[in-house]
Amino acid sequence: MTIPALRFAAAGMTIKKNGNPGMDFNFTEEQSMVRDSVASFLQDKYDFDTRRKIVSSDAGWRADYWKAFAEELGILGASFSEELGGLGGGAIDNMIIMEEFGKALVIEPYLGTVVIGGGFMKHSGYAGAASVIEGIVGGSTTIAFAYAEPQARYTWQDLKTTAKKDGSGWVLNGHKAVVVGAPFATHLIVTARTGGAQRDAGGVGVFIIDKSLPGVVTRDYPTVDGNRASEVYFENVSIPAEALISESGLALVEQVMDEAIAAVGAEAVGVLRKLHEGTLDYAKQRKQFGTAIANFQVLQHRMVDMFIEVEQSVSMTYMATIKVGESAAERAKAVSAMKVRIGRACKFVGQSAIQIHGGMGMTDELAIGHYFKRATMIEGLFGSVDHHLKRYESLSFDAAA
């Protein structure tokens, strides 16, 4: 498949022929600087031992690091337009940052705040978007997306949470499950049914609320990969009219979630690179029968297969990231195709890394087990392999009809 050069230029990337089939991707100088600055910061201040201390702390994250992301690195504004107080970037910048965060297993809520929260602000036409983005860019606003419900699986519009009109405002009731990043959040973006039946495409309201509002009850807990999440309950929560982002927001939710899935793909690329690199280094050091296990042909084949999975994931993630700005159907197909590839790679590369390491690979003291846990979580995040295969199939049939 070939892509017109103009599409890459519009994405902030350049391309060049190298005499081989296909094309090479080159990042702009500004994007390379973003990558280098993030990588340098994380190498200096976010090594594996530091992350272990962060994960085991009462807070579960480093608010001072989040402030540094805003003020020292400026990356919280990298993906916003200059008109909104950002640096003029977009999805490519999110991809670059998320890949570096994946390599370091960063806990801080960039996905929920910048990618998802910022995505709703950029695409909704919400009257208060500029104010919210100012808080995001400055590091004072953190956001968690409360969308998942126990009965819904990956169906965004399957909602039992309701928002009912009350004068000029709304009253919110319901339960949201596994709201990742909610313990760190100052605000929640919430999907709720404003009309229609439980699974109708219409009547999907999207709201942004202060998490400290009376009636918002949270039960916080750690997740298996070191993050924090909450069960969030809304008990007759009165919210003002200006909290409404969209009253018919399913298309908006799908757009923002596709961008989030592309960003998670970039994070997965970082995780997969570290799984492969860590396994290769271990195989060169670990000896059996007087020789490094890296010399065993069967393990060489396995590690080559791991490398191929990583590189295919890189290519699919680049493609999906570039296509998030296209039509809804093209965007969704590219993102689902990427998520299938990422899900399979996370399973194969992660399990292969643990198998080659043996039982010690799952110990808390060894980094490889932590990367495996994050890869396993990413495999099912925002849709499993089976879900995205069905989605891609459905979109392909619709296009052919």
TrEMBL record:
Obligatory cofactor(s): FAD
UniProt cross-references to InterPro entries, sorted A to Z: Acyl-CoA_Oxase/DH_mid-dom, Acyl-CoA_Oxase/DH_mid-dom_sf, AcylCo_DH-like_C, AcylCo_DH/oxidase_C, AcylCoA_DH/ox_N, AcylCoA_DH/ox_N_sf, AcylCoA_DH/oxidase_NM_dom_sf
Acyl-CoA dehydrogenase/oxidase N-terminal domain mapped to chain residues: 28-105
Signal sequence coordinates: none
Keyword Oxidoreductase: yes
Keywords for the protein's UniProt record, in alphabetical order: FAD, Flavoprotein, Oxidoreductase
Superkingdom of this protein's organism: Bacteria
Residues covered by the Acyl-CoA dehydrogenase/oxidase C-terminal domain: 248-384
Statement: the UniProt record of this protein carries the keyword Oxidoreductase: yes
One Pfam family per UniProt: Acyl-CoA_dh_N
Listed GO MF terms: acyl-CoA dehydrogenase activity; flavin adenine dinucleotide binding
Residue intervals of the Acyl-CoA oxidase/dehydrogenase middle domain: 144-237
UniProt record similarity statement: Belongs to the acyl-CoA dehydrogenase family.
Cross-referenced PANTHER family: ACYL-COA DEHYDROGENASE, ACYL-COA DEHYDROGENASE FADE28
Protein known as: Acyl-CoA dehydrogenase family protein
